[in-house]
Amino acid sequence: MTPHARRAAAALTAALLTAGAACQAHDPSSRQAGGPAAAPATRGFTLVASGDVLPHAPVIEQAKADAGGIGYDFRPMLAAAEPVVSRADVAICHLETVFGEDGDYSGYSAFVSPPQVALGLAAIGYDGCSTASNHALDYDTAGIHSTLNALDRAGVQHTGSARLAPEAAAPAMFHADGAQVAHLAYTHDINGRPLPAGEPWAVNLIDRDRIVADARAARAAGADVVVVSLGWGTEWQDEPDAQQLRLSRELTASQTKGRPDIDLILGTRAHVPQPYEKVNGTWVVYGLGDQIAGEMANREGFRDPRGQESTIGRFTFAPPARAGERWQVTKAEFIPQRFDLGRVVDLNAAIAQGAGTAPVRDRIRDVVLRRGAAKDGLVMGS
Questions:
Q1: Is the sign of the CA dihedral 159, 165, 166, 169 positive or negative?
Q2: How far apart are CA 9 and CA 16, in angstroms?
Q3: Residue 6: what are its φ and ψ, rounded to 5°?
Q4: Which residues does 312 contact at the CB level (< 8 Å), separation at least 6?
Q5: Strands in 167-321 per DSSP E
Q6: How far apart are CA 308 and CA 301, in angstroms?
Q7: Residue 69: what pLDDT?
Q8: Residues linked to residue 248 through DSSP beta bridges, in sequence order
Q9: Contact 312, 322 (CB under 8 A)
Q10: How far apart are CA 325 and CA 84, in angstroms?
């Protein structure tokens, strides 16, 4: 299925969920009347996820230059990720910033990005983005509206922030070769800002009980796989912090009738790659890092190149042997990346072409594997 076909199918599913549909949107015959869903006849699917899209001012200027000075073009800087992203059945990004509409964009400390970011993400094959971040209210509610409007126009689904309460209540849903994949997103904070008066649903904040309830609701609405994105962690820290460790244990331990409520956790916000780990049988990515970002200073005030390093996580899911059981991750991979001179760089590909980036690739690999993920089958992909 092409990315455009997947997005059309997913949009239909989301619309039906919002209306309260209780059956699978694409294949009603796959659900037995009064009984559990029939085991799907499918080869399974691959899901990829990448880290923060965080356009600082130099990144915005690069996109303007790539557009020839007329508008903004983010496709060239993302092009190196396309071979991985476009071949996945479901591709998820994390949008750390909001979009403006008047051309008055900024890169720090209040991030307001050009809406053409959405076109760049769609062009290389992303199907959806998490939009719950600590910068989700940098442009007040106008930023949420302009961001989600631009993603809608580009055909990219979104979850984590909302324009209306019904939108906040429905996850993004993707159809992936026989499986319905639900995507939910939450953030630890919104930089001290209060939620808009009368709109407590505008940005999803991390709350264990709510996340579990939302995951169970998505499952009841037909989701075979539930993916949760979390903006959490301590910035510039390679290791997961106490909140990440505690919440990952609690969320992965949550079950309904012996089946885990959540099938994959994807972490963002820390600005650096963090480890992958299998917790209670469920893969957790504590931090994917920044896929797109300008040069940044760390907590000590020094320029830290780790802020432009990231991974793409790729997970292959196989259908259950019996209806109602869990879809299993049969292959887990990470692909190291770096944002350099205004371009995403696939580090494995760069090394194969003779670039001297092996130390960066190896550092990312060492961090990702630091909590023993290799013994559970995590490998470095290409």
A1: positive
A2: 11
A3: -65, -40
A4: 48, 49, 50, 81, 84, 85, 288, 291, 334, 335, 337
A5: 172-176, 179-187, 225-231, 255-256, 259-260, 264-268, 276-279, 282-285, 290-293, 309-318
A6: 16
A7: 85
A8: none
A9: no
A10: 29
Are the C-beta atoms of 229 and 92 separated by less than 8 Å? yes
Q: Is 3.60.21.10 the CATH classification of the domain at 41-380?
A: yes
Contact 228, 284 (CB under 8 A): no
Cα 52 from Cα 269, distance rounded (Å): 7
Mean pLDDT of all residues in 84-102? 97
Lowest average pLDDT, out of 22-31, 112-121, 162-171, 268-277, goes to 22-31
Residue 323: its pLDDT value, please? 87
For residue 370, what pLDDT is reported? 98
Predicted TM-score (pTM) of the model is: 0.90
**Is pLDDT of 26 > 80?**
no
Q: What is the mean pLDDT of residues 275-298?
A: 98
221, pLDDT greater than 80: yes
Handedness of CA 55, 57, 63, 67 (dihedral sign): positive
Strand extents, DSSP E, 239-342: 255-256, 259-260, 264-268, 276-279, 282-285, 290-293, 309-318, 328-340
Q: What percent of the chain has pLDDT over 70?
A: 89
Q: Are the C-beta atoms of residues 203 and 137 closer than 8 Å to each other?
A: yes
Q: Per-residue pLDDT for 272 more than 80?
A: yes
pLDDT at 17 over 60: no
From residue 373, give the alpha-carbon distance in Å to each of 50, 79, 82, 265, 370. 18, 29, 26, 14, 7
- The answer to whether 81 and 344 are in contact (CB under 8 A) is yes
Buried b vs exposed e over 176-204: b needs ≥16 C-beta within 10 Å? Answer: bbbbbbbbbbbbbebeeeeeeeeeebbbb
